[in-house]
Amino acid sequence: MRCLYCHRRLEPELDLLNLFTRPGPLCSECEIRLKEWRKGGRCGRCRRLMGEGEAECRDCIYLKSRFPPVGKIMCMLDYNEEVKMLMHRYKFVRDIALAEVLSYFITVGRRDYDHFVPIPVSPGRFRDRGFNQITEVLKRAGLPQSNLLETGKVKLQSELSRHERMSSANPFTFNEEYRDVRLRDTRILIVDDIYTTGITVHHAAEVLLHHEPAALDVLTFSKA
Ligand SMILES: [Zn+2]
Ligand SMILES: [Zn+2]
């Protein structure tokens, strides 16, 4: 077997501990590098690196004032240099096998939520990339998906300025194909790849909260 990230051969040392457990898809060096969090004070909620003397996270303060309340925010990885590289290879070089690497870090199970909702990509972006980067990871993690959201937006979040991101209108709408599916009192998990300001997932949550779920949490692959 080879490490899915650096392609080096994995040499499993057979001992009593790993004899009965399936080896992971990564060599230990890659696993350590991908899992590393950049040093510094973090927001307890969104894990943003806080500025010097910043008592409360300004992103979370803004979100609280602008959006209805969302439950937990879970970030699998920091957006460190290695994760940045992984995301680039995955999304832009379209090395779709890397979805397996990301799925390895998912800690929620299929019983934890009733609906796993990937942030949708616009039809244009889907055509260019050929896949939805979130959907592929969920598939490999063995999680079912409810495509409750649709989007037709043209501009990428990364193409917008901070101010534009904060003020832009909601790019998501409810996917009417799901209008007969029960959402009320269910547990919903929104899944995104990179949490930057949090605006994207809060826009998504805003649409879904109209359906009165019992819980609505967020999982992102990395925290920028
Ligand atoms: Zn490796
Ligand atoms: Zn925060």
TrEMBL record:
InterPro entries: ComF/GntX_DNA_util-trans, PRTase-like, PRTase_dom. It comes from the Bacteria. Belongs to the ComF/GntX family. This is Competence protein ComFC.
